[in-house]
Design goal:
Layout lengths: L1 H15 L3 H5 L4 H18 L6 E5 L5 H10 L2 E6 L2 H10 L4 E4 L14 E5 L7 H11 L3 H4 L3 E8 L4 H8 L1 H6 L11 H11 L2 E8 L11 H11 L11 E8 L1
Parallel strand pairs: 1-2, 1-4, 2-3, 4-5
Antiparallel strand pairs: 5-7, 6-7
Helix pairs in contact: 3-4
Length: 248
């Protein structure tokens, strides 16, 4: 099963590599605004700075690698399973270490990184296996004086569009999803992280700004969305969730 998953993801990366950032929704004005906000979550929650040793999982074409490196000058190792996407990332940032790696079987030694982060990648993986592997390579309080941190931003299964997209096969193909990807139910994810050994787990919904929102309406829809994020029950159908946990 794992081999099939990896092969599917490599084929998917090759298929979308010609227009990946548009397919992912990051190239529109609203998409760029979403990306800036997401990168800020990674930096702030991870307390990332120039002294941080960072592992980015599923870096793709390097959208978030570039944002975080530009803002922090951190020591980033960025990995992906897709050679086609990695080629684009390396062209953008020749000074960053990009490696072809299976996120469910990393080549790094135990206790190597201060922060492990990723954008819209965990839902492509066998999550119990991947989370255990990330736990292994994170440094603990004993290694670095403070806990290693895990931060992911992922699609929210409770969002109506996401639910349909991930569960109706013909729509899944039409939207450009890979065969094995799913989405996150935050309550189940919390339990899985705790079972794996992570502490101080927080999984919370956010982001009502759709990448298809026109440029002229991006500001007002962004403000409305961030207001809805504060409303109980309604916030549960946000488009994404932030996953945060620590290795102590």
């Amino acid at each position: 099963m794992k081999k099939n998953l990896i092969n599917h993801e490599i084929a998917h990366g090759e298929k979308i590599s010609h227009d990946a950032e548009k397919i992912w929704g990051w190239s529109s004005v609203a998409g760029q605004k979403r990306a800036e906000r997401r990168a800020k979550y990674f930096i702030d929650l991870g307390e990332i700075n120039r002294d941080s040793a960072i592992l980015e999982i599923g870096c793709g074409t390097g959208i978030f690698t570039q944002k975080i490196y530009s803002a922090t000058s951190a020591d980033i190792t960025a990995v992906d399973v897709s050679p086609a996407l990695l080629e684009q990332a390396r062209t953008k940032m020749p000074d960053v270490k990009f490696l072809e790696e299976d996120a469910m079987s990393l080549s790094f030694e135990d206790n190597t990184f201060d922060v492990v982060y990723g954008s819209s990648v965990l839902h492509h993986l066998d999550m119990p296996t991947a989370l255990s592997e990330f736990y292994r390579v994170l440094r603990s309080t004993a290694n670095r004086g403070k806990p290693g941190k895990l931060i992911f931003a992922e699609p929210n299964m409770l969002n109506p569009q996401i639910f349909i997209q991930k569960n109706v096969p013909c729509i899944k193909r039409w939207m450009g999803d890979s065969p094995d990807e799913t989405a996150i139910i935050r309550f189940s994810m919390t339990k899985l992280l705790q079972k794996t050994g992570y502490k101080n787990v927080r999984v919370f919904p956010y982001d009502f700004l759709h990448p298809a929102i026109p440029h002229s309406l991006t500001g007002i829809f962004s403000a409305i969305g961030q207001t809805i994020e504060k409303i109980p029950l309604l916030k549960e159908i946000a488009g994404s969730v932030i996953i945060y946990a620590e290795k102590q």
